[in-house]
Amino acid sequence: MDEQSRLTSRFEEHRSHLRAVSYRMLGSLSEAEDAVQEAWLRLNRADTGDVENLGGWLTTVVARVCLNMLRARETRREDSLETYGASPSAGREEAVDPEQEAVLADSVGLALLVVLDRLTPAERLAFVLHDLFAVPFEDIAPMLDRTPAATRQLASRARRRVKGAPPAPEADPARRRRVVDAFLSATRGGDFEALVALLHPDVVLRADPSVVPSPAPVLISGAVTVARGAMAAMQRARATRPALVGGAAGLVMAPLGRLFLVLRFTIEDGLITEIDVVAEPERLRALDLAVLDA
C-alpha cells in the first residue's frame, strides 16, 4: 500500500466521527460534509508524521473549520441587522438528500439542534466538543484563544441554555441600573469603546423579526458585533428611556409616546451577557413595564 492509500485509509477510519462532530456543530449535513472534506484537504497538505493521535488532530481541524463557518454565519446576520436586509439563510439551497438529513437529525435529536443554534459559535464549540464528545477543556481552549477556565465557563453557560435554565442574574438592583444607564449613555453618545467595555466578550443579542425587519428572529454575538449594531441605532437611542421590565432595569423605546420596542438585559458580574430586543406586539403587551426617571 502506497503512502496516499495509507493516508486515505486512516482518514476513512475517522470520517464518521468527524461528520458527527461537524453535524452537531453546524446543524446542516451539506455543511458538515464540506467541513469534513476541508479536513481531508488539510490532512493532505500537512506533515502529520509526528502526530500520534490522528483522530484528535482531525477533530481539532474539523472543529476549527466549523467554528469559522459558524462565525461567517454571524457576520452575515450582522450585515442583515445593520442593512435591514433579509435573513442570511433565506434562499439557501441544500445539496443533500432531505431524507438522509432527516434521518441524521432524528438520530441527534431535532430539539437539541434547535437549541444549539441559539448558542454563540464559541459556546457551541465548547459544549459540543466537551459535553457530547468528551474533549478536555485544555484541548478546546486553544481553538478559541481562551484559557481552560474561560472555556469551561462557556460550556457551562451553553449547558444552562440547552437545559432551559436561566442564567444567574445580577443580584444588586442598583448595580444593574448603573450598567443599563451606562449602556444607554454610551449608545446615545456614540462611545463605542465604552459600550464594548460594558459587554461580555460573548454577549448575545436576540431581536424579534419586526425590529429589522426580517423573516426570522435575528441573533448576533460578540461584544464588538453587538456594539456595532447598537451604534447603528444611535439615533433611535435618543427616544429610549430607562424602565423596569418585569421588575428589572431595562430600556423602552417610545417615540412620540408610542411603545416601539423594549430591551431586556441579562447582567452577570457587572457585564451584559444577553440583550433581548422585544418588538412583536403580543410580546410587548405581555410585559410588565414601568418607566423610570432618566
In short:
With 294 residues, the protein is an alpha+beta fold. The protein contains 13 helices and seven strands. It has two domains: 3-117, no CATH class; 173-291, Nuclear Transport Factor 2, Chain: A (Roll), CATH 3.10.450.
List keywords for this structure.
Nuclear Transport Factor 2, Chain: A; 294 residues; 2 domains; 7-stranded mixed sheet; 57% helix; 13 helices; alpha+beta; single chain
Q: Indicate the CATH architecture of the largest domain.
A: Roll
Mean pLDDT: 81
Summing up helix and strand content along with how strands pair, one would put the structural category as alpha+beta
Spatial shape: elongated
Can you count the helices?
Answer: 13
> H/E element string?
HHHHHHHHHHEEHHEEEEHE
Number of strands: 7
Q: What is the fold-level CATH name, i.e. the topology of the largest domain?
A: Nuclear Transport Factor 2, Chain: A
- Count up the domains: 2
Rg, rounded, reads 22 Å
Summarize the topology.
Elements: H1 3-26, H2 29-45, H3 54-83, H4 98-108, H5 110-116, H6 121-132, H7 137-144, H8 148-163, H9 173-189, H10 192-198, E1 199-207, E2 218-221, H11 223-232, H12 234-237, E3 240-245, E4 248-253, E5 261-268, E6 271-278, H13 281-285, E7 289-291
Parallel strand pairs: 1-6
Antiparallel strand pairs: 1-2, 3-4, 3-7, 4-5, 5-6
Helix pairs in contact: 1-2, 1-3, 2-3, 3-6, 3-11, 6-7, 6-8, 7-8, 9-10, 10-11
Describe this structure as you would to a colleague.
This protein is α+β, with helices and mostly antiparallel strands and 294 residues long. The chain has two domains: 3-117, no CATH class; 173-291, Nuclear Transport Factor 2, Chain: A, CATH 3.10.450.50. Helix content is 57%, strand content 15%. It contains 13 helices and seven strands. The protein has helices at residues 3-26, 29-45, 54-83, 98-108, 110-116, 121-132, 137-144, 148-163, 173-189, 192-198, 223-232, 234-237, 281-285; strands spanning 199-207, 218-221, 240-245, 248-253, 261-268, 271-278, 289-291. Strands 2-1-6-5-4-3-7 form a seven-stranded mixed β-sheet, sandwiched between helices. A hairpin with a 2-residue loop joins strand 3 and strand 4 (248-253). Helix 2 (29-45) packs across helix 3, helix 9 packs antiparallel against helix 10 (192-198) and helix 10 (192-198) crosses helix 11. The longest helix is centred in the first third of the chain and has 30 residues, at 54-83. The model is unreliable at 83-96 and 102-108 (pLDDT under 50).
